[in-house]
Amino acid sequence: MVRFLNTPILVDSHNHLGKWTSGEDLTVVETALGHESYWDFIHQDSAYLSTFNEAMESDSHVVRLALRDCRSVFEGIGSLVDVGGGTGNTAKIICEAFPELKYIVLDLPQVVSGLSGSNNLSFVGGNMFKSIPQADAILLKWVLHNWSDDDCIKILKNCKKAISGKGKGGKVIIIDVVINENQDEHEMTEVKLLLDVVMMTSLNGKERNEKEWKQLFLQAGFKSYKIFPAFGFRSLIELYP
C-alpha cells in the first residue's frame, strides 16, 4: 500500500499494477479509482482537497529560504500571476518580500472560493488550460511535472500569451525538478527518479532533464531560458519569449 502526493488516498499497487499495464488507463490511480483521475477524485471531497492544499502550503516555506539566493528573479516585476497557486501561501511569502508587486493567484474556482487577498494580492478562479491573466511574469511552481508533454505545451502557450504585452520584457518563472545525472550526486538523482515514477503512475506526468525541458519550451514558442539550482532537488527556470 502506498500513500501518494501527500493526500490520504491509498492505492494497493500490487493488486492494480498488472491491471494497469494491460489496460487503457493512463495511471495506476485511474485503475484503482475506477477510471477516475486523481484531480477529479480530490476535488469531489473537501477533506482530500484540504489535505492537498495543506501539503502545498507546507512546501511553499521552501520559497522563503530560497528567496535569499534568487531575489533578482522577482526584482523589477510589476505584476505576476501564480498559476495553480492554491491557497496563496507562496504568494504571501513573495508579497511580503516585494510589497510593490501586484500578485494574482490563479487556481480552480473551488480552490480559491472564499479566499481574501490584500492590497497587492488577489485570487482569481479560472483554468490554466483556457486562459491566464495578463502580467509581467508568470509563476509555475510545482505545476508542470504533474502533466504530460502535450498538456505542458498548452499551459506554456497560454503563459506566453499572458506575457505577450511585455514583448521581450515578460518571462515565465518555473520551479520544478531538472534531472541532471552528470552533475547531481547519486542520492539526489535517486530522489528525482523516484518522483518521476510517482508522477508517471499517479498523474501521467514526469520529471524532465534539461533536453526535455528545452524541447517543451521551443514547442511552446519560447526562445531562451536559464536554469538555477536553488530549491534542493528542484531548480528555478527563467523562460523568455
From TrEMBL:
Molecular-function GO terms, alphabetical: O-methyltransferase activity
Pfam families linked: Methyltransf_2
GO biological process entries: methylation
Database matches in PANTHER family: O-METHYLTRANSFERASE
Protein name: O-methyltransferase C-terminal domain-containing protein
O-methyltransferase C-terminal domain: residues covered: 28-223
InterPro entries recorded: COMT-like, COMT_C, SAM-dependent_MTases_sf
Superkingdom field: Eukaryota
Keyword Transmembrane belongs to the record: no
Alphabetically ordered keywords of this record: Methyltransferase, S-adenosyl-L-methionine, Transferase
PROSITE patterns with a match to the protein in the record: SAM_OMT_II (PS51683)
